Amino acid sequence: MAGSPRRSAGRRLQLPLLCLLLQGATAILFAVFVRYNRETDAALWHWGNHSDADNEFYFRYPSFQDVHVMIFVGFGFLMVFLQRYGFGSVGFTFLLAAFALQWSTLIQGFFHSFSGGYILVGVESMINADFCAGAVLISFGAILGKTGPVQLLLMALLEVVLFGLNEFVLLSLLEVKDAGGSMTIHTFGAYFGLILSRVLYRPQLEKSKHRQGSVYHSDLFAMIGTIFLWIFWPSFNSAPTALGDGQHRTALNTYYSLTASTLSTFALSALVGGDGRLDMVHVQNAALAGGVIVGTSAEMMLTPFGALAAGFLAGAISTLGYKFLTPILESKLKVQDTCGVHNLHGMPGVLGALLGVLVAGLATHEAYGDGLESVFPLIAEGQRSATSQAVHQLFGLFVTLTFASVGGGLGGLLLRLPILDSPPDAQCYEDQIYWEVPGEHELLAQGSEETETQA
Amino acid sequence: MAGSPRRSAGRRLQLPLLCLLLQGATAILFAVFVRYNRETDAALWHWGNHSDADNEFYFRYPSFQDVHVMIFVGFGFLMVFLQRYGFGSVGFTFLLAAFALQWSTLIQGFFHSFSGGYILVGVESMINADFCAGAVLISFGAILGKTGPVQLLLMALLEVVLFGLNEFVLLSLLEVKDAGGSMTIHTFGAYFGLILSRVLYRPQLEKSKHRQGSVYHSDLFAMIGTIFLWIFWPSFNSAPTALGDGQHRTALNTYYSLTASTLSTFALSALVGGDGRLDMVHVQNAALAGGVIVGTSAEMMLTPFGALAAGFLAGAISTLGYKFLTPILESKLKVQDTCGVHNLHGMPGVLGALLGVLVAGLATHEAYGDGLESVFPLIAEGQRSATSQAVHQLFGLFVTLTFASVGGGLGGLLLRLPILDSPPDAQCYEDQIYWEVPGEHELLAQGSEETETQA
Amino acid sequence: MAGSPRRSAGRRLQLPLLCLLLQGATAILFAVFVRYNRETDAALWHWGNHSDADNEFYFRYPSFQDVHVMIFVGFGFLMVFLQRYGFGSVGFTFLLAAFALQWSTLIQGFFHSFSGGYILVGVESMINADFCAGAVLISFGAILGKTGPVQLLLMALLEVVLFGLNEFVLLSLLEVKDAGGSMTIHTFGAYFGLILSRVLYRPQLEKSKHRQGSVYHSDLFAMIGTIFLWIFWPSFNSAPTALGDGQHRTALNTYYSLTASTLSTFALSALVGGDGRLDMVHVQNAALAGGVIVGTSAEMMLTPFGALAAGFLAGAISTLGYKFLTPILESKLKVQDTCGVHNLHGMPGVLGALLGVLVAGLATHEAYGDGLESVFPLIAEGQRSATSQAVHQLFGLFVTLTFASVGGGLGGLLLRLPILDSPPDAQCYEDQIYWEVPGEHELLAQGSEETETQA
């Protein structure tokens, strides 16, 4: 404990008071605004003539649970790779996401399901709130280990609002398609976090360099996160799409894309690795890029081949990004990206948006038949040409990058407030500053320091 | 191995013989009594005119699988926090739950689905059996590390019977509502285990004190349990409710409640922690209390705000219980509660029962409309007023506490039989007495003992 | 790193080039042959008059996701028990399965869903591909730690073809029933791997003996695999069966069988263990044999008692196999079976096939009613007697054993090609040869070597 100085009472009280304040505020807003929707309200559901089997619950709840696993187990454990930041990774994921679910229920509710003065909630609002939490956790990945929980909650407070606004502009005003969130979740979350990390740049971060790596078992814990993300990504992309062939095709395309990103990740990782060795960082992250890159287009008639090709590209670019781009981002652009979210979410997200532009632009009545109404209603109704839809999709990407950049900049300024409890440079990537850590950990830590001294 | 003395042949044979005996007995009872129900029998299902889509399987099996994950992964890994009892935690969970599933299929079957001389089984009996196993595992949590597998199986043998009886009294005789089991599962399991632990009180337990804590990686394994419990709790509470809006609303309320208990847990943990540090014990456990406290009321018209408020209260009380009440329970009341089940299941379970009293008492025809029939059939049919239902709910809590206390006392007397293979005080919380443990563990153990000597 | 010699450039390039070649080849074949089926194609689905709720997605996707968890988390982590091969276990599982999914989509597609010159894909092809990947991973278990990733990919290339051919002969030509794959998956995968391991026999493998065991935390990681396999096995066996009572009954039977194999595993493990101690190897593996043994018969009218009895037998035989047969297999038959797949998949698979023979032979119109058409269509239509069906089932087992043996032999010859990058005897069960391993691992390794020297 010698290494971690005591914090002042003012700093120690920030987390409890902020949690209580945020919870109090959302509770009041829930009391005023949030009501059961037709599918969750006893009186409303039983009014009218329909079968219980028609309840949206049976079409979307299994997908919701898969998404829920991704948010809490997937993101949480993926970040446990850091040798001394496992509690912070999985614990702050838990805290951040729990708050984001409440807060985004309100924000997204105002934008998407506000009716008669009330926000109406059901399984779709649960899925949407989890999606928004996903974006917050992507941003968290960029600043992992370099920020305290109070800073993280404030980031979520801001980011959820901007996420909701950006999503509203894209889905409701521009009417672009982005079921799996290549733009709204991955691009937005990544660039928000990267700009924020840039503003929080720590020139002295090498003081904590020895804690930035993994240890053997922390890499295995991280693989729990990776594998659950990989498995359930088909459910993620398909959770909010049109029912029937829409959900079915989206899941299938995502499944194929992920198998291809896995193969290209292994290929590239061995190709660029020292002595042909595979790198766990690539396997843990780049293999997932296939899910990101089809986030926009998986619900479209991408074709199985298209899914494979997209996934292959995503895994390859992501792996090369970890190997060659991340060091440059830090040294040249002063962006310290702990988890490499630029490689897993940033570049594949932008590519996914562009792939969506391409596939939307190729949409024809012949390929979609009467299903065109579900995927591209404006084209089906003759209000837009496929080309026009493609242009709108492209514009959606620019809007997203703008919201993310401005938001990340604002977030960075907010998180730099000197009053906020932030870890010193020498205590980054270290659980002890925010967590009671059982004794063995210190012993192991001492042990590895001794070893480093010897080496 | 030096530290663990050899057991006599009589003790060594207890576990194999008891397993064989119990398995033989349940197999015979299955042969005599258990039959496929209308939904699982080839002939019965195909007799009559209905669609395969109507089969209960499609409405309940996804929820069942979520519950199944909670029982085996959730409870199993949650208890792995102990540094030298990981095999026992996850292994005995596995054994106990596997037996409890068979045994409770019989016991609950006699009480709930006995027809024409046969117990009829399908997905609902699977869910109910898993629920009963949950109660057994809650009791296991109170005595974790202080009992051998033979004692645990005998406890399950008794507890399953009393669980079934208590459940029958509540659900069938008193006709109270308790879908997620605030009373039948959490209150019953917790107080059964606590009384049992009281009867098994070990005054010399400090001999094993050094093994009662966690190590860094054991805390991360425990978080696997926590997170899977947290994620799937909405499925747990909604698995047995009425279809349609009932399942949907129950899942939604539970989801909100859990987000609030997470925030209050982090707030209180940091508030009462040394130097403002968060405690993994609180995060692993108290954050789940939001699922327990809405176990009775989540299927009712609790309102989203009500769910948040209940969850907040549960997380706060549970965290404070871990900090202040658990030490007093041990020192004053001689209840040694290894996992703190009083904080996670006991108090939140009782509060959940009381919340059920309140929400049932507030039920109106206006709020539930025609859905009142699904939630409170007796009120809908005019046989009971809401107040009367509330009184019945309250009486159900007292019945549960009575069954749990008497059962726990009987269980304790049974488990104190001197013939039973029980770990000595100096070998509690230690895998080596019941498990082949690979070499490294001894080395680590030696290492930490040396360290303790040095300190 | 001193211990792992550098590989030549030719060897280092094998993995990247093979991955790229395989991915390129499958992508081209996908482009030429693979198309959306009626349920995933926008135009085809919306042509005609049916409800979105009728889409196969809602009947099979939740089961598919459970199977998907089993393949990647279940198999992947089950093999992490080796102390220094965690990256290889979970990483090569990931790579192998990702390739097998693509390749078996093509192979199985040619055999089972080839129509109008195209392979038509949807959720059923996803389930089937995952099943085939399961067989490949079973074979992987036999040679775990003794082969490089290039060898493994070549094995998958061959095995998927033979799997598809064997499955085609059984299901389409012989018209035997084998929903959960006692024959097509478990028997085939196990004996393919065992014969292959025999051909790859390494007389000097004791050089790596000290790495063949587990350490404390690797055993806990392995239990993650075990428990997820155990939980979701009911979904595995029921994923491809007839809808309605078929899926429902299959899941129920598997659930009961697994509870019984768990009890018999604990009983036998304690009975044969030193000083009555339980062995993690048994619990991790033999407890799962209940899922294997009902792979053929779970969809039939096995009865709940039949499921218990079968599971009990499987757990017992599997445990005894680990204790007594595995050492003999290695010393007498020169079959080095790293994970003991003969005990978990081989013997229980053959027993499962024979149980299928028995239960099929006992099928009557009375027991199945109009459901006979779903389970045994040829008997229902009068084209076969129950006895004839039983004989066909038995013949299916012999076909499977033949395909597996010949295939495993061919596979072994292929993998012995001297050009292939294979680990030397002294580097088996060791991650460092194929993976960048973080520093702590080397320290631990040194530590345990020192300890061994001292001992």
From TrEMBL, chains A, B, C:
The keyword Protein transport does not apply. The chain crosses the membrane at residues 67-85, 92-111, 117-140, 152-174, 180-201, 213-233, 253-273, 280-298, 304-325, 346-364, 394-415. It comes from Muntiacus reevesi. Keywords: Ammonia transport, Cell membrane, Glycoprotein, Membrane, Signal, Transmembrane, Transmembrane helix, Transport. Its main location: membrane. It catalyses: CO2(out) = CO2(in); NH4(+)(in) = NH4(+)(out); methylamine(out) = methylamine(in). Residues 26-418 form the Ammonium transporter AmtB-like domain. It holds the Pfam family Ammonium_transp. This is Ammonium transporter Rh type B. It comes from the Eukaryota. It is a multi-pass membrane protein. InterPro entries: Ammonium/urea_transptr (IPR029020), NH4_transpt_AmtB-like_dom (IPR024041), RhesusRHD (IPR002229). Residues 1-27 form the signal peptide. GO terms for cellular component: basolateral plasma membrane. One of its GO terms (molecular function) is ammonium channel activity.
